[in-house]
């Protein structure tokens, strides 16, 4: 009996220690997001979102920060690469960074949060349109990629005015230049919001 009581006492002490560590980790993640967001606003290149935690994975899973962190990192990559085209010497490096941004955004598009997924899809559309412009603006497959991404963004978030404006803008440009696309625009709408895509950090709600 005594040995059993000792074992229970030891177990309770261990559980209390784990609970204390977990509580610390639960506080660490929101703080890490706030610090990372503040740094991003000043210098995107120096921003990172990483919490110093003791119990790996548990606090992040309980808080559901995975999608938020992935979205922040993908948007950071987009901002660092979009519209930046290196010299001949750095062309391969620029293409590699751009490819990383596209892969990161493609992962975020599969997010369970439709608002975050819509923003990522909108940014993918901008990257596709940028690639199209660099290639002379006549590649139907690139045009389809851009239109499809904007359509998906509007479908995921019908209130995403940036995606609506971007969709309407590229359709008008393609029509004016005789570029035909096979992408459906049934999910789109005629936007009246601000031009350009939103590249802000999505709120975590913590």
Task: Explain this structure.
This protein folds into two domains: 1-64, no CATH class; 66-184, Alpha Horseshoe (Serine Threonine Protein Phosphatase 5, Tetratricopeptide repeat). The model is unreliable at 186-198 (pLDDT under 50). It has helices at 2-42, 58-63, 66-81, 91-109, 114-134, 140-156, 161-176. The protein contains seven helices and no strands. The protein starts with a helix and ends in a 30-residue tail after the last helix. The protein is an all-alpha fold and 206 residues long.
Features:
Serine Threonine Protein Phosphatase 5, Tetratricopeptide repeat, 2 domains, mainly alpha, 206 residues, 0% strand, elongated
Brief digest:
The chain has helices at 2-42, 58-63, 66-81, 91-109, 114-134, 140-156, 161-176. It has seven helices and no strands.
Topology overview:
Blueprint: H1 2-42, H2 58-63, H3 66-81, H4 91-109, H5 114-134, H6 140-156, H7 161-176
| Count of structural domains | 2
What is the general shape?
elongated
Poorly predicted parts: 186-198
- The total of beta strands comes to 0
Helix content: 55-70%
CATH class of the largest domain: Mainly Alpha
CATH architecture of the largest domain: Alpha Horseshoe
């Amino acid at each position: 009996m005594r040995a059993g009581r000792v074992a229970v006492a030891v177990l309770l002490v261990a559980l209390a220690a784990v609970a204390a560590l977990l509580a610390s980790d639960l506080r660490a993640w929101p703080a890490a997001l706030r610090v990372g967001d503040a740094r991003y606003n000043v210098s995107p290149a120096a921003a990172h979102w990483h919490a110093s935690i003791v119990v790996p994975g548990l606090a992040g899973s309980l808080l559901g920060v995975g999608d938020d962190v992935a979205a922040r990192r993908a948007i950071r990559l987009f901002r660092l690469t979009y519209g930046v085209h290196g010299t001949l010497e750095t062309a391969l490096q620029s293409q590699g960074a751009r490819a990383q941004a596209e892969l990161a955004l493609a992962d975020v598009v599969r997010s369970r949060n439709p608002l975050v997924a819509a923003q990522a899809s909108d940014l993918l559309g901008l990257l596709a349109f940028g690639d199209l412009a660099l290639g002379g603006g006549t590649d139907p497959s690139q045009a389809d990629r851009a239109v499809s991404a904007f359509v998906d963004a509007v479908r995921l978030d019908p209130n995403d005015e940036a995606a609506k404006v971007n969709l309407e803008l590229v359709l008008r440009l393609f029509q004016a230049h005789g570029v035909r696309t096979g992408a459906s625009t049934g999910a789109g709408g005629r936007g009246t919001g601000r031009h350009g895509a939103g590249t802000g950090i999505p709120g975590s709600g913590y």
